Amino acid sequence: MYKIKCLNPISNDGLKLLTDNYELTDETAEAAGILVRSAAMHDMELPEGLEAVARAGAGVNNIPLDKCAEKGIVVFNTPGANANGVKELVMAGLFLGARDIVGGINWVKENAADPAIGKSMEKAKKQFAGNEIKGKTLGVIGLGAIGIMVANTAVELNMKVIGYDPYISVNSALHLSTHVQVCDKLDELVAKCDYLSIHVPLMDATKGMINKEVFDCMKDGTVFLNFARDLLVNDDDLEAAIESGKIKRYVTDFPNAKTANMKNVIAIPHLGASTAESEDNCAVMAVRELMEYLENGNIRNSVNYPSCDMGPIKGVVRLCVFNKNVPNMIGQFASVLANCGINIPSMTNKSRGDLAYTLMDADQDIDDSVVEKLLAIPEVFKVRVIRK
Fold first, then answer.
1. pTM greater than the 0.85 cutoff
2. CA–CA distance, 340 with 88 (Å, rounded to integer)
3. What is the tens place of the pLDDT at every residue in 300-322?
């Protein structure tokens, strides 16, 4: 029986997938798995028996990834599950940035008591005039699941689209419209665009990546959309770019105390994935990832461990070994198991940075003494045994 703790409300579409081998618990200390959305986990004491954390969403900055990795706790996210919901809001942001719809709506509210509003609005509306997006150039920074959908949709709206992503995956490239031009330099991309939309994860390498140097390369009057994370942008440099007219409008789903008070900012309260469909999709994907790992040891869409999948358990038990990524680990595992008379008909090993993960199916049961011998290898820090 696996006990699962939900740190946030999780859609029932996901929770109903849990079989009789699972039980929801209110006690974090007894959880083998945690399902989370936005709850902050950095100050949490991680339970000794915790095996995995599944984030029902893409961003994982609320989870202590390194701390989890050191303890052999696999952290999953759900890339692409909420992509359409975010994409649709980005497109709404694109239209809001192109035409002063917000200003016009506010004007109507302010003048709602005017009995001659129908006449006066014909005089007032010119101050809210904007531009059509057809034929304009959109730059998409980051061509992951959301970035690709934004780029492809913009093509369908007859925009010229240029993409930038030095780390684009083969799978992403295959889904990108052939009408999207790919640029290999960020400064060259922003110089060509009327509109910019950023879709990259927040990491040390990307924090503040949109700064004065990048703003200076942009066209005057650029509309900048940020539906990724606020910390990707240097706020002081953004404010200066707005003051100079380099940025015509900044549309963001991640306002903060500074940007919420800037002029020419359209701030949305993080609604990108706030659709019933996105929440359902993320919950389903997170629960499936968690169940697959707990039952079979397979890792899919982890953010701190390598993807590693051997399908269902083929032997009597499956060994899951967490170790440092150094030479001769497989040889040491094989030696220990051979000396214990354990036959391993199938095995796979994957690595990610300094960490490695190995799956081995055994033809007979494994007792504690075998696990202890594996743990005695200096570079091994966790061993799981999953019985069929």
1. no
2. 57
3. 999 999 999 999 999 899 999 99
